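Title: Comparing notes on inverse folding

I've been comparing how different people in this forum approach sequence design from structure. To keep things fair, I'm posting one structure and asking everyone to reply with a full sequence. Here's the target:
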């Protein structure tokens, strides 16, 4: 069904269709619309779920962990400091192999207080064992949420999944949305290690040095196995619903001399920049990284690479840029831009390409940089 929706409401619509048994909710700007919409569905009896209005984000994740451990489907949503408040529990969710799905509306961290888009919140969760997908349109927010449940709950994965959407730049933007009946696209959940009161077992107990590393390896093994599951899920989604997704979204990359890499809505702005650069005779392309965990293989050999980071790891660099350097052994031009919602236009991005200095890092808007 064709409609018009915000990114937040698109996520809520997908959650309604996925029919989680438990939704734990705590509001935070700019995520609040997601859990408010789900609450409206519950009130209107359009969604039969146990909706738990908790007192904090830490409790929201703890409630999802408790519910998921019994073998039922769960969902929550958060942003920024709310995600950081969950951090103890996000580690537990992945370590306990619980397929929780969470939407994170990317927002900057204070101080100074700021409610606008930045990816640093999710980047601080990158080593917890959560799969992470970054979306760029309202339609993709809806589609990625549906696929997230199927991927997380697959028995070769059984890891939580985080859907990231840029605060305000996508969460509150109205765009066309084609909703669908997922039917059996999301099969019933089966958690092999679910708590069974008729067959008591230990859960999350103390492990010594001779065993503990095996739990960590099991997360990594499943992260690697998730690559095939993601590919199969995206292919099945395309077959059923006609919308195609990959680990990256490539635009004019086939013959590109210079490729712009980014996450989230930067990718769409980069496409406009590429069109303009092409008209000027510069063979540019855009490669939007969708899945940050597991991190994809990127074909970048023989090209100049300009990486846009709406995040930063102090004393280290842009997280996406450094990840690409480490995985692909390529020389890049790293641009730090858009922090705290800083406006970055397609003209600015075209300027980064034209002024690129390979092997260097630049902060947009800082004197002496681009």
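Reply #1:
Here's my take.
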């Amino acid at each position: 069904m064709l409609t018009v929706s915000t990114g937040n409401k698109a996520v809520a619509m997908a959650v309604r269709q996925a029919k989680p048994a438990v939704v734990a909710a705590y509001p935070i700007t700019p995520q609040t619309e997601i859990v408010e919409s789900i609450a409206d569905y519950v009130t209107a009896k359009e969604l039969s779920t146990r909706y738990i209005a908790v007192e904090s984000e830490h409790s929201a994740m703890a409630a999802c962990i408790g519910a998921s451990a019994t073998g039922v489907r769960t969902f929550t949503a958060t942003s920024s400091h709310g995600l950081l408040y969950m951090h103890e529990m996000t580690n537990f969710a992945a370590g306990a192999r619980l397929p929780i799905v969470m939407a994170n509306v990317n927002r900057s961290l204070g101080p100074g207080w700021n409610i606008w888009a930045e990816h640093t919140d999710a980047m601080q969760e990158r080593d917890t064992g959560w799969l992470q997908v970054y979306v760029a349109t309202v339609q993709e927010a809806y589609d990625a949420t549906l696929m997230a449940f199927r991927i997380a709950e697959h028995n070769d994965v059984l890891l939580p999944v985080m859907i990231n959407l840029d605060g305000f730049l996508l969460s509150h933007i109205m765009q066309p949305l084609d909703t669908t009946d997922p039917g059996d696209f999301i099969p019933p959940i089966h958690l092999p290690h679910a708590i069974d009161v008729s067959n008591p077992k230990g859960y999350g107990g103390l492990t010594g040095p001779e065993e503990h590393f095996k739990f960590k390896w099991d997360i990594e093994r499943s992260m690697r196995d998730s690559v095939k599951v993601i590919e199969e899920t995206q292919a099945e989604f395309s077959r059923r619903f006609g919308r195609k997704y990959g680990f990256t979204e490539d635009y004019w990359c086939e013959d590109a001399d210079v490729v712009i890499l980014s996450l989230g809505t930067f990718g769409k702005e980069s496409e406009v920049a590429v069109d303009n650069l092409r008209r000027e005779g510069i063979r540019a392309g855009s490669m939007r990284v969708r899945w940050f965990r597991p991190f994809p293989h990127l074909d970048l050999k023989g090209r100049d690479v300009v990486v846009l980071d709406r995040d930063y790891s102090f004393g280290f660099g842009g997280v996406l840029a450094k990840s690409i350097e480490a995985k692909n052994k390529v020389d890049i031009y790293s641009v730090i831009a858009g922090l705290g919602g800083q406006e970055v236009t397609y003209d600015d991005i075209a300027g980064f390409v034209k002024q690129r200095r390979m092997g260097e890092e630049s902060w947009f808007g800082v004197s002496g940089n681009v």
